[in-house]
Amino acid sequence: QVQLVESGGGLVHPGGSLRLSCVASGRTFSRYSMGWFRQAPGKEREFVAAITRTQSTYYLDSVKGRFTISRANLKNTVYLQMNSLKPEDTAVYYCAADEKSVGTIWSREYDYWGQGTQVTVSS
After folding, report:
1. In which order are the strands placed within the sheet that holds 67-72?
2. Which of 64, 67, 93, 120 is the most buried (most CB within 10 A)?
3. How close are the terminal C-alpha atoms of the chain, in Å?
4. Model confidence over 41-100: pLDDT tens digits?
5. Residue whose C-alpha is closest to residue 47's, from 95, 117, 90
């Protein structure tokens, strides 16, 4: 069982930056693929970014070149660096962990989820 805790959200103006962090419990963090998802009120949850055990990365097209996912296995932490933020990035961002590695990384069922952290991009 893995517990995930996100932090780093907040209010930022368009063009600004935030770095989200997700700290995982346990001692097997490096065995999981990790993903970031987001959900705005009234909208479907969508895949944002993911990083595999081997540190391959994947991104939603609309965030490519602006967001960077990384992991620090010794700290049981995954990050999402978000630059050049846009109003359409506003959402609750969730960290997720996958241990099965079945299916495409952006659409597979993840096993564990954090509580979410709010990101608001507004003038």
Report:
1. 4-7, 18-24, 77-82, 67-72
2. 93
3. 40
4. 999 999 999 999 999 999 999 999 999 999 999 999 999 999 999 999 999 999 999 998
5. 95
Name the nearest CA neighbour of 123 among 92, 84, 86: 86
Of 83, 102, 85, 106, nearest to 37 by C-alpha is 106
Question: Measuring CA to CA, how many Å separate 47 from each of 18, 26, 36, 118?
Answer: 18, 24, 7, 16
Tokens of 104: 């495409």
Contact in structure between 108 and 100 (CB atoms under 8 Å): yes
Contacts 24+ apart (CB under 8 A), 38-41: 38/89, 38/91, 38/92, 38/93, 38/94, 38/119, 39/91, 39/92, 39/94, 39/116, 40/90, 40/91, 40/92
pLDDT band with cut points at 50, 70 and 90 for residue 102 = confident
CB atoms closer than 10 angstroms to residue 114: 21
CA distance 35 to 59: 10
What are the tens digits of pLDDT across the range 103-119? 888 888 999 999 999 99
